Every structure is written in structure tokens, then in C-alpha cells.
């Protein structure tokens, strides 16, 4: 198992980050990605591991990806744009 938290963007944006850390197996984790202005933060279990400046900004999408040789379960996946309706 690759023990890392990664953040990537499509090839047009060339934004990526990788943080190596042990990820405990056989337990639930909370992964949170926050967008605030040009800042993007990635936290796992309430600890921020990645903060990047986003020079592109604007509307986008969120997705999850795992390696082919891993067994991963996602539960309660929530996306909130923060936009007022």
C-alpha cells in the first residue's frame, strides 16, 4: 500500500502535491478538502497535510481515486460548493 495523501489536477493545470505518511489500515478516516479563495487544503483525520495555491480558481469538480491493488470503501461522500442558493 502506498502510504501517502495526494492532490492532483488534470494535465492542463499541472497542480499536484504528495505527502508521505502512514495510513492506518482497517479503520475509517476522515478526508477533507477545503477551497478558500486561491487556497486548497487537504486534511486527514483533522490534520492538514497539504496546502496549495490555486492559480486557476473557478468552478470545478471533486473525485476520489485509489490504486488498483487497494481495497477502499467510501462512505458519506459530501460535496458542498458553499454557494448560497
Can you describe this structure?
By secondary structure, the chain is mainly beta. It has a domain at 4-53. The chain is built from no helices and 5 strands. Strands 3-4-5 form a 3-stranded antiparallel beta sheet, with no helix packed on it. A two-stranded antiparallel ribbon has the order 1-2. The mean pLDDT is 77.
How would you summarize this macromolecular structure in one to three sentences?
The protein is mostly beta strands and 85 residues long.
Descriptors for this entry?
two-stranded antiparallel ribbon; 85 residues; mainly beta; globular; 34% strand; 0% helix; single chain
Distance between the termini: 41 Å
- Tell me the strand percentage band: 25-35%
Strand order of the largest sheet: 3-4-5
Give the fraction of residues assigned to helices.
under 10%
Main sheet attributes: strand count, strand direction, barrel closure: 3 strands, antiparallel
Q: Please tally the β strands and state the result.
A: 5
Average residue pLDDT: 77
Shape verdict: globular
Query: What is the string of SSEs from the N terminus onward?
Result: EEEEE
How many DSSP helices? 0
Structural class: mainly beta
Task: Name the poorly predicted regions.
Answer: none
CA-based gyration radius: 14 Å
Topology:
Layout: E1 4-8, E2 16-20, E3 31-36, E4 39-44, E5 47-53
Antiparallel strand pairs: 1-2, 3-4, 4-5
